[in-house]
Amino acid sequence: MDRPVNDSRPVVAFLTHSAQLSGAELFLLRVTAAMRRIRPLVVLGEHGPLEHALVERGVDVEVVELPTTVRSHTGQSRGGATIGKSLGVVATVRRTARVLRARRVAAVTTHSAKAHLYGGLAGRLIRVPVVAHLHGVLGTADVHRANTVLLRTVLRTLPSAVIANSRCTARSLGGRAPVTVVGCPVSIPPHTPVASSDVVVVGRLSAFKGQDVAIRAFARATARAAGPTAPRLRIAGAALFPRDAAYADGLRALADQLGVADRVDFLGHVTDVSTELANAGIAVHASPLPEGFGQVVVEAMAAGRPVIASAAGGPAELIEDGVDGLLVPPGDDVALAAAIGRLVDDTALGDRLGAAARVSARRFGLDGIVGELEEALLRACR
């Protein structure tokens, strides 16, 4: 990529080990392309879809490929595997530091658990400020305990500042102050009224996202529905990581077991999520565990759709129950079924919630979020 010779803006490196188009990576894609006061340099640990998407948007990208021992580590290895991992981390820190030094970065910001470690060490090695940006709640059952203990230690020692995507995420760090809360950006699309009672769930296929909860709730809520006008459940997403493959396969078996396989559509990975949400009657977030922010929740709100979300983590901060959405206990398919049935039966309620949700989502406009993020990073550079 051509780099402006006279660009006096500070270069800030954004590090993540993954190049898959998942939550934190999609955040980087949106914000770095819109920055005006900072020259973003995204440093990835692998080649992949995020790399290509960033380049298409004119964002500067470097790839420092992680050794297999680092990329595949789950926190449960023993003996020789642990030694190999340690050597891999040391090599990754050195290689990353060389890139950061050569690019004369003013600060490093890390955006994944592995990047918090090797990126934080690399930033310290070249003596620039390190800002850890947290995109998920620490200590959930989705993260191995050994990794959580290590991560908390890393986050309390390496960064000079911490950014979190919600108050819940900030609290999960425990005892670290100050933490700046910056949400995730959303575009507000033109409002398109839709006469549909179809339910949509968007997100990578994973037990953490709770598609199984959504299928059970849908089957319960629509048990008596039949015919061409019966509600459908549309599941948009794919298993991005090998550990989720068995779970994804089990979802189809679950739909068949519950007798709704003919009304559940597995769409696979969907690039244009906004269109899928715009065509939905009801958007569901079914994670049984606290999610850091809830990007799909705020995107559905921006589209003016009634949203039902788990009352935990970031989504519980986004939605005021009964005002701009409905909240249900996490993992409770009975409560979720009741909420779905309520919206299917009362379209006027859905319209009211959707209209209010659209107004609420405006506080997460792209320009405002990017401005908050740039200000936090520039403070760290001073």
Automatic annotation (TrEMBL):
<dbReference type="InterPro" id="IPR028098">
    <property type="entry name" value="Glyco_trans_4-like_N"/>
</dbReference>
<dbReference type="GO" id="GO:0016757">
    <property type="term" value="F:glycosyltransferase activity"/>
</dbReference>
<dbReference type="Pfam" id="PF13439">
    <property type="entry name" value="Glyco_transf_4"/>
</dbReference>
<protein>
    <submittedName>
        <fullName>Glycosyltransferase involved in cell wall biosynthesis</fullName>
    </submittedName>
</protein>
<feature type="domain" description="Glycosyltransferase subfamily 4-like N-terminal">
    <location>
        <begin position="52"/>
        <end position="186"/>
    </location>
</feature>
<dbReference type="InterPro" id="IPR001296">
    <property type="entry name" value="Glyco_trans_1"/>
</dbReference>
<keyword id="KW-0808">Transferase</keyword>
<dbReference type="Pfam" id="PF00534">
    <property type="entry name" value="Glycos_transf_1"/>
</dbReference>
<keyword id="KW-0328">Glycosyltransferase</keyword>
<feature type="domain" description="Glycosyl transferase family 1">
    <location>
        <begin position="198"/>
        <end position="358"/>
    </location>
</feature>
